[in-house]
Design brief:
It is a single chain. This protein is of the alpha/beta class. It has helices at residues 19-30, 91-101, and strands at 11-16, 33-35, 42-46, 57-62, 84-88, 104-105, 114-118, 124-129. It has two domains: 1-66, Roll (2,3-Dihydroxybiphenyl 1,2-Dioxygenase, domain 1); 68-142, 2-Layer Sandwich (Signal recognition particle alu RNA binding heterodimer, srp9/1). Helices cover 16% and strands 27% of the residues. The strands form two sheets. A four-stranded mixed beta sheet has the order 1-4-3-2, covered by helices on one side. Strands 5-8-7-6 form a four-stranded mixed beta sheet, covered by helices on one side. Strand 2 and strand 3 (42-46) form a beta hairpin. The protein is globular and about 45 Å long.
């Protein structure tokens, strides 16, 4: 890459019908805050105290034609475009907490090492067990 070119992770963006509602779910799930953006189409959540532009965060974009994906995929049905993996130190506790926040457990599961959940807009996300990772010196994720 050319030394003058700078590329930084800014955000993962999820389409949904109600960005404020979905942002509220993820803010509660992660203990993050909504970053004030003067826009009704977009809402961002980021770690506490983060100012606009000083994160990667999760952005929620209003799409009035949004159709929730089917998971796992089925021929002819709306497919997922991406999903988010969250590392947790206790999958069972994290699943219970995510349910309290408004998520649902996906009907099909494929591993005991993680649990696939669906957010209130139907986006899949995974709660991945990696307890020892939290204590490793290189682990810097928020």
């Amino acid at each position: 890459m050319d030394g003058s070119l700078k590329i930084k992770m800014y955000s993962v963006t999820l389409d949904c019908k109600d960005p404020h509602k979905l942002a509220g779910f993820y803010a509660k799930l992660l203990g993050w805050e909504t970053v004030p953006i003067p826009d009704e189409v977009y809402v961002v959540v980021a770690p506490p105290g983060t100012v606009q532009g000083a994160y990667p965060g999760i952005t929620f974009q209003r799409n009035d034609d949004y159709i929730p994906p089917v998971w796992p995929e089925e021929p002819g049905a709306q497919q997922q475009m991406a999903h988010i993996d969250f590392v947790v130190n206790d999958v069972e506790k994290a699943v219970k907490y995510a349910l309290d926040c408004g998520a649902t457990v996906a009907e099909q599961q494929f591993s005991d090492a993680w649990t696939v959940m669906l957010d209130p807009s139907g986006h899949p996300f995974c709660l991945c067990g990696a307890g020892t990772m939290f204590e490793s010196p290189g682990f810097a994720l928020l």
